[in-house]
Each structure stands twice: as structure tokens, then as C-alpha cells.
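During the second year of the project, the team shifted from modelling isolated chains to modelling whole assemblies. The rationale, set out in the original proposal, was that interfaces cannot be judged from single-chain predictions alone. As a representative example for this report, we include one of the complexes processed in the last quarter. Its constituent sequences, exactly as entered into the pipeline, are reproduced here:
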Amino acid sequence: MMSQCRKVLRAAALVFVFSSVGAAMAQDPLPSWNDGATKQGIVDFVAKVTQEGSPDYVPQAERIATFDNDGTLWAEQPIYFQLLFALHRVGVLAPEHPEWKEKEPFASLLKGDVKGALSGGEPAIAEIIMVTHAGMTTDEFEKIVKDWITTAKHPVTKRPILEMTYQPMVELLAYLRANGFKTFIVSGGGIEFMRPWTEQVYGIPPEQVVGSSIKTKLEMRDGKPVLMRLPEINFIDDKAGKPVGINAHIGRRPIAAFGNSDGDRQMLEYTAAGSGARFCLLVHHDDAEREFAYGAESKIGTFSEDLMTEAKTRAWTVVSMKNDWKTVFRPDPSR
Amino acid sequence: MMSQCRKVLRAAALVFVFSSVGAAMAQDPLPSWNDGATKQGIVDFVAKVTQEGSPDYVPQAERIATFDNDGTLWAEQPIYFQLLFALHRVGVLAPEHPEWKEKEPFASLLKGDVKGALSGGEPAIAEIIMVTHAGMTTDEFEKIVKDWITTAKHPVTKRPILEMTYQPMVELLAYLRANGFKTFIVSGGGIEFMRPWTEQVYGIPPEQVVGSSIKTKLEMRDGKPVLMRLPEINFIDDKAGKPVGINAHIGRRPIAAFGNSDGDRQMLEYTAAGSGARFCLLVHHDDAEREFAYGAESKIGTFSEDLMTEAKTRAWTVVSMKNDWKTVFRPDPSR
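Output from the structure prediction step:
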């Protein structure tokens, strides 16, 4: 009885929360954005491309918006979360690999020396990624990712990893979709690392996720066809790879693109080079108090002075997290 | 005045045609399919996966249906239409390539000897494809395809090439979408050869087309980023490649798959191997009078005895074009 009662109370509370959210949305589709030039710029762009008869009108089918993930939709400090996942997997797999005790980068990792392990640079990272991301079926990998993503905590904030997503950006995704946009993720991260949770968290279904990938191969297992994940790079969806990935996957040039680092530069340039109204936005991490402050000097999510100059020259929108965002992180969607 | 009058008359006629079509659709969503087990099987499957509360109910986001193109959505005899396009392009490009007069497979082609040119087998075909499909930007290629597809005629029927699409399958696509399915093309044909016209003809937008591809590369031209098409295979979306392409592009296993040949076998097997209700269909070309009759002996669109046996064993639907289709080709959409 008690449990039944609690369920009803929870349901009632949820209805209340959702109606409040609904009412707030009706007044302001971007409640977590402070009023100002940045927010106004977003609203103005959406108004002019959706207003029939406007010289900037864009038919619904062509309203493609692409979003980087790491540093744009969720945090990326102190290291990419997919690397956290890989490091966790090394621990899980270690008992099957006694040889790792003597072999770098695994030996350092297993001693808890992450910095030492990563000192091997890209080859070391690639090796960690391959042993943790390949050698299983796509269905198995999906389950492994789901299990981790729903239990992992951020190493600094100790919050659930899915609470490290940005509330203002989640609102922006919903706002664009409510205005007939189709929203895509275009990330340097692994496509199959993102797909298991992007629908729940961002409202973006698997078929609208573009990312880096390893090769897969059709095999029969117990008389059933499965796709095995091979330890071989298929595609790197970063920098000049982003327009290539966009074309391969979407087949249309976006009219709006959202990023936060040098890795997104070519995506924004490619978007801006189309004809008609375009919108390009970069999130600048300048909020050491509520999140992290980094830019030109950071190895992860580098926002170079060159990129800042280009953004100013081309009148791209640069979001100051400190000034433009009322809240940063979103509440855990599962609570 | 006359022209104004004609326009009004045409508009009125169109309204009349569309209302009739609308009324017919309300009665029967598949008017070009003869009543019988095949049609009933399609309707029953759609009913059970869309009926809330049914044990076979599938949430809308998971209603993924994949369609082969050549031989399934449009004809493929006497040769794949993309090869017709390539042969046409060789003629257009010949003045820039005087060396082709002495070089096979081009020399035979330019003498009108298609059979001789293709006698070089796959390497000859690959060479023809590369010189006609690479070396331009993606935007330029899109324009070339659009120009050809709207003017080309079928070599046997002399009908516009876009009238060689199948009316019953176009109805089936619309019927599935009306029931919350997301429809994808998964074809061995070139992804960028299909995208410029699939939305108009099948109602399938570019981002829902999966196909074979060549590599592209980001380059600057007149200060603007463009994607150059390179003479290098990126991916072959056929046979065991189809499940790989589906996973890479869609990231979900289809619940329904539609094909017509051995090239679709793995796609159907992969679809059937998922849990819950599944629907697999093969179009059998047995209608020499209205289209073409071919199967096990055909080099193009081979439907082997092995595949027929598997279809029967697994209770896949085999469409007899002769018996199941009231009409075969669809009217030119631009008329």
C-alpha cells in the first residue's frame, strides 16, 4: 500500500513538474539562457528562416542543424568522457589480460597512473580505445555503454555523467525541433558510444548521430547474423572530417552549426558557405566557477585565438557560458 | 490570357486528380496491389506492430523499414540505370579525352558497342564509374545527376527513366510512413546518384538513403569549402555490406526489409534475426509482358534458387509481379 501510495505521489509530482515546465516553455522556449544579444540572435535566426514569405525562408526539409557533442552538448574536462569509459573498461578486462601488467599503456593505467598511461600520446590512446571498443558484437557494445553511462560519475564534480549535459543546449535542441529543424550530432566521439543514450538525453535518435567509427563485419553466431566490431579505424569525424561525415550521412549542407573548438571549425565554415541565411555558434568555456574555464591553451577542446578571430570576422555567435547561461548542467533525466 | 486560362484548368485538373487519389487512399491504401495473401500479409503486419496493447506492438521510433532500390523500387533491366548514366557521361566527356579512342573500355563504348565495353567485366565497369563519378564537387555531381534523371529515357520502353519506378512500391512506402514507419533506401547503387531525386519520387529524404560511395575530401575553391569526389571506393553497400551500411547509417535493426535479389539476402536475414515481429519481402520479376521476367539465370538482379528456398523456409513474402500488382509503373511525377 505504502509503495502504491508513493508511486501515485511521485506521478502527481511529475505531472506538476512537467506542467510547470510546459507553462514556462510557452512563455520562453529558452529559459536557461539569459536575455541578451546571444539569445536574441538565436531567436531572430529561427524567426526569419521559418517565416513564410520572408526572403530568408527555408523549407522544413532543409532545416538541418548539426551539433558537436564534447564541450558543446556535454562537458569534456578533465578528459573526454569516452576516455573515462575506456579506462573503466581496461579495469574490467584486466583479469583476462595478465600480460597488461608489464605492457604500456596498460601497466601504468592499472597502477592508477592515468597521466603516465596517456603520456604515450595518440598511439597509446588508440591502443586503449581498440582493446575496449572492438572484439564484441554491436549489440554487446551497446549494452556495455548503457551500463556504464547510467552508473558512471564525473571524476571532479562526482555528478552522474549524464548530468554533465548542458541544460541550455538541450533547450536549444528542443526549440529548433519545435520549429521544424532536424537536429543531428556531428562529433569526433564514437558513433556507437553516443547512440545508446542520445535519444533519451538529447531527443536525437541513433540515425541522426554522426561520429567516428571502427569497421564492422557481418558474421554468423549460433546461426544468427551479428556485426562484429573490428580493431580498425573506419572514419575520424573531426576537423576536415566533419563536412565529409555530414555529406556522407545527411547529404545536405546544414543551415546552422554548433561547436566549441578548433575541431568544429571546418563544420562551421562548410555550413556558413551555403547560400541563404546561416547560423554558426561556438560555446566558449569561460566559467571556472560553475564549469571549467579553458580555451587556446587547452589540449582538450582547444579554442584557438585563430578561431576566435575568425568567429569575430564572420560574425559567428560566441556564447559566454558565464554571461549567457542562467544554468549550466541539466538535472538527471532519470530522476 | 490563354496561358493563364490553361494554368487554371491544369490546377483544377490536378485538384480533381489529387482528391480522387485521396478518396481512393482512404478506402484502400494499396490500390495498385491485387487482393490476396501478399497484400493481406502486409496489412496484417502493419496492423499488429502499430496496435497499442498488441503483443507485437513496436514503438514508433523503432519502426524502421529498409528498401533496396534497383529491381525493388524501380526497374534494373536491361542494365542498371546508373550504368546508363555512366555510359551517357562517357559520351559527354569524350571530347576532353581524345585518348579514349584507343583505350578500352572507352573505345568500344564510343563506337556504340556497349556489350564489347562491358566484356572487360568488373574492372572495366569500375573504370567507367570512376571517370564519370569522380573529379568534381558533390554539388556539381548533384546537378549532373538531376539533369540526366529528368531527361533520360529507358532504352527499351522509351519511357522517362523516373516512370520506371513501381507504383505499388511507392504506395507501400507511403502506407508504411502513414503508420509511423521511417523508410530508408539501402541500395548497392551510389548514394549520391540516388539522393538528388529520391525525395521527389519516393518521399525519402537524402539523410534516409544508404548506398555505395566513393571517398570525398574537403578542399577550398575560391575561398569556399567544397567536397571533391575522389576516384577511390569508400564503401560497397551490397550483400554482407548491407547490414554494415544499415548499422553505420541507421544504428537500429530494421523490423521490415524489402528486396528482390541475392544482393538483399543478408539484409533480410539481419532484419529477420531481430526479436519481435518482422516482415521480409522479395519482389519476383515474373512479368515478361508488363516488365521483365528474370531470376536465377540473370546476371543483373539474380534471384537464385537458394534464395527462393530460403524465402519459403522462413515464410518470407515473395511478390509475384504478374499476380500481385494491378499496375506496375507509376505515372511521371512531373506531369
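Strands of chain B lie at 64-67, 182-190, 209-221, 224-235, 256-259, 279-284, 317-320. Chain B has 13 helices and seven strands.
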